[in-house]
Write a structure and sequence with these properties.
The chain is α/β, with parallel strands linked by helices. The chain is about 40% helix and about 25% strand. It has 2 domains: about 160 residues, P-loop containing nucleotide triphosphate hydrolases (Rossmann fold), CATH 3.40.50; about 80 residues, no CATH class. The chain is built from 10 helices and 10 strands. It is globular and about 55 Å long.
Length: about 250
């Protein structure tokens, strides 16, 4: 069994008296894909917002390898090794596909004026390395031929794929993916799922929110079913899908 990489302990969050998260506890294991499923309003995206510092919970804690995340701003959480996608993607659509990926690489020496003016050659060499790495990521995702196209020229499915590439470029250890295959064509679903399946082999652990249960069955090692901010069921995809509590929650 893989060790726990990220842990959630008693996380609760109310919005105007409505419990978005209600004493939620669980864990994501290293080198695995964990799926969060459940109806709209179950608290899945709120949990992502708590983990990444966009929402402060009322109670509870989130640990990454034993290190507390709550109370840190989003950029510091990202530096600790947590990256995420959003349902609205948040790409810089006026920039090219390649430029979006390049911006995701952390700790670039060209970001410092001292390096630009006084360490020009090392900066140039590092930028060339980053450019090659970005092209390699795009090639692996099947987007290399689109590298110079504006991001907003891509199809919706290709934009979702690009958002995954940007997550990879951050070199984060934990990737939080919010509905990565929602609303896209089946052929693009297959490509995105193939990319996600490869994440653990590259040392990445994944937590994904998804309503497409067939996709969940294909890529997830474990699944947590949430409803009304609580964990209702947890296990393998097959165990959770066949849990009577889950069936009851979906069919009412």
């Amino acid at each position: 069994m893989s060790e726990s990489l990220m842990e959630f302990h008693g996380v609760s969050k109310n919005f105007d008296g409505v419990a978005a998260l209600n004493n939620f506890s669980g864990a994501a294991r290293g080198g695995q894909v964990l799926g969060l499923i459940g109806p709209n309003g179950a608290g899945k995206t709120t949990l992502f917002d708590v983990v990444t510092g966009f929402t402060r919970p009322d109670r509870g804690s989130v640990l990454l390898r034993g290190q507390r995340l709550l109370g840190r701003p989003p950029y510091k959480i990202a530096r600790l090794g947590v990256a995420r996608t959003f349902q609205d993607l948040r790409l810089i659509r006026g920039l090219s596909v390649l430029e979006n990926v390049l911006l995701a690489f952390p700790n670039q020496p060209g970001e410092g004026l001292w390096n630009v003016f006084f360490r020009g050659k090392p900066v140039s060499m590092r930028e060339n390395d980053i450019n090659r790495a970005a092209i390699s990521l795009l090639n692996d995702a099947g987007l290399a031929e689109k590298a110079d196209d504006p991001a907003d020229a891509l199809s919706y499915g290709q934009q979702k794929l690009l958002s995954l590439v940007c997550c990879l470029a951050t070199d984060a250890e934990v990737l939080l993916l919010d509905e990565p295959v929602a609303g896209i064509a089946p052929v693009m679903i297959d490509r995105i799922l193939s990319v996600i399946r490869g994440f653990p082999t590259h040392g990445r652990s994944v937590i994904l929110i998804e309503h497409n249960l067939e996709a969940v069955m294909q890529v997830c090692d474990r699944v947590i079913f949430m409803d009304a901010g609580q964990k209702i069921s947890e296990g393998t995809p097959t165990e959770v899908r066949n849990d009577p509590k889950v069936i009851q929650a979906y069919i009412g």
